[in-house]
Amino acid sequence: VIWQAMSGDIHYETQKSNGLPSYKTLIDFYSQHSLREAALMLCLDSAAMMNIDEREKYLLQLKKEYCDLASCDKVYIRLAELKDNDEERRQIIEEGLRLYPKSAELKNWIIDQEAPSLQYGMPNYLYPDSKEDVVMSVHNVRSAEYSIYRLPDNFQQDDEVELLTQVLRKGKLISKDVHTFAPHPAYELWRDTLHLQTPSLGMYAMVMQANTQARLEKKPEPQVHLFYVSKLRAFVAPLPYKMKIVVVDGQSGKPVSGACVKAITIRGKDNKKSYTEHITDERGMVEVKSLPRRIKLSKDEDSMLPELECNRWGAYTPYVSPSDI
Which end of the chain has fewer CB atoms within 10 angstroms, the N or the C? Predict the structure, then answer.
């Protein structure tokens, strides 16, 4: 403990000029006095100072020299950390477990590597009745059950209530399906794509539940993602004392005439709201004689987009725009 504090807090040149112990002198001292476990711990510390090739060669040497110690299990952890390939890491850890079956560190490594996980990314704003690719990354997951819920027009998220509870209470289930992943090793990160058919206009929630073979006390918690389905997108262009807003179709990029743009201003310490409404011309454009904090778009039944912040100081910045516009 004293050595670790000294090596971290005292500059190397000061250690050297004052004749303070080095890794080598301490390792030699412990070895001469049959304190081999302490020597091994310092050897592992000193390995961190080496480049990767030197470190691997040194760790393999330690593996042979200290194989009779239970604490040699830590050498296998360090060797596994040097590998980029999941399968190689797994093989090293399993070799260590065969030699040191009581090692908690090696067992925990296996548990961590096999812990199921599911991550997916999808936009918050989708175009109605189109195909959307949802990219998924999974770890020890056989399949994912996903459900789409239509939320009421007046849905407001309550921060004090779990989102899943709110969705199940207030939403209406409109579709349910299962996406099965190709067989893959439990320790390997697997990527796949879900081809989602987007629903009609409105506000929705996707609930994703991972199914796994891992032995768990309870199933992984479902993931919930809110999204809006609308044809409307907009660009804002801040100008001196005014703002130009262009409303376009989210798929074709063509201007949308007759759309309503609500420009919302927030003032004062009490954040008092005021707003003005504007109708886009044949170019899909409106000009607002102020710099609104937020805008909200609607046209006929396409009215579910939320209020969103404007970037008032940027250049020609997209308000909500998929990459294909």
Answer: N
